[in-house]
Amino acid sequence: MIAGSRRGFASDNNAGVHPVVLDAIGRANQGHAVAYGDDPYTESAAAKFKKTFGEETEVFFVYNGTGANVLSLQALTDSFQAVICAETAHINEDECGAPEKFTGCKLLPISTENGKITVDRIRPHLHALGNEHHAQPKVVSITQATELGTVYRPEEVEAITRFAHENGLFVHLDGARLSNAAVSLKTGLREITRDMGVDVLSFGGTKNGVMFGEAVVFFRPDLARDFKFIRKQGAQLASKMRFIAVQFEALLTDDLWRRNAEHANNMAALLEREVRNIPRITITQPVDANAVFAAIPREHIQSLSREYFFYVWDEGRSIVRWMTSFDTTEGDITGFAALLRKVLR
């Protein structure tokens, strides 16, 4: 881990809190408010979600992304069912088996080269529908932007949702970096979720300037009928919910979500331009959002990450991941690129 306060490229989770969000928390910290979401701050934030995603939207605030994903899937499934996802999906790789533990469901991971699954790769998992000897697929979970930093085109999402619905499946979208995807696609948030047929969204804020908290967004109210009980039983009901809610209201006001994500994406694009021609560096994925994946010489990873902290993504192929965030500066990029040139010359 690097010393001091130098910004690295390990994760957009490592960034601080956007000043506008921090100010919103401060303004909510006045007097008393009814607990567990029965307060005017949470009501106002929910209205902002309805304005953004549509009046039929039901939103529930939770503590973190794993909670959002797990509870979303729990609301859609029974324990004898299964969830289809990319093998790189956060629910498959980075949630310590929580989806399986709390839903009882089997995950059916699909191998991908770019983090995106397709109808052709979903279809083989449906051959045993109705067969009592097999876990029954019930949800397709996609990630936008993907764990490899790539972005589904709207038509790709629509093709998946159409196929899923034709076969009696729901579609869950892990939108931890949905804002970055929307910026990449030059769209709004609704246009690439609800309008494309997504049923339930885990909407991320922590990676885009929020201190803590995520949102579970239902686009079909009937699916949200019992969610308040699922959230409580899942230990994700915040007593002082106003402090989560006001952060999301700030994020959805005056396009703060877009400005933060746009800056992060622009910094990733700048980083890719700065390093693409450095000898012994190979960019391994398209830079669609705020992630740069690169193969670099193994022997230099440790010394480089001491200066600008980052993670190894694929140890076997010596691929690293560099993430940018709303507070990454051009100086961070040029300084890191200069170090790479010096070390890899």
Please outline the helices and strands.
Layout: H1 19-28, H2 40-53, E1 58-62, H3 65-76, E2 81-86, H4 90-93, H5 98-103, E3 106-110, H6 119-122, E4 136-143, H7 154-166, E5 170-175, H8 178-185, E6 200-203, E7 214-218, H9 227-233, H10 242-251, H11 256-275, E8 282-283, E9 291-295, H12 301-307, E10 311-314, E11 319-323, H13 330-344
Parallel strand pairs: 2-3, 2-4, 4-5, 5-6
Antiparallel strand pairs: 1-7, 6-7, 8-9, 9-11, 10-11
Please give a quick description of this structure.
By secondary structure, the protein is of the alpha/beta class. Helix content is about 40%, strand content about 15%.
Explain what this protein looks like in three dimensions.
- With 345 residues, the protein is of the alpha/beta class.
- The protein has helices at 19-28, 40-53, 65-76, 90-93, 98-103, 119-122, 154-166, 178-185, 227-233, 242-251, 256-275, 301-307, 330-344, and strands spanning 58-62, 81-86, 106-110, 136-143, 170-175, 200-203, 214-218, 282-283, 291-295, 311-314, 319-323.
- Strand 5 (170-175), helix 8 (178-185) and strand 6 form a beta-alpha-beta unit.
- The strands form 2 sheets. A 7-stranded mixed beta sheet has the order 1-7-6-5-4-2-3, sandwiched between helices. Strands 8-9-11-10 form a 4-stranded antiparallel beta sheet.
- The model has no long low-confidence stretch (mean pLDDT 96).
- It folds into 2 domains: 19-251, Aspartate Aminotransferase, domain 2 (3-Layer(aba) Sandwich); 256-344, Aspartate Aminotransferase, domain 1.
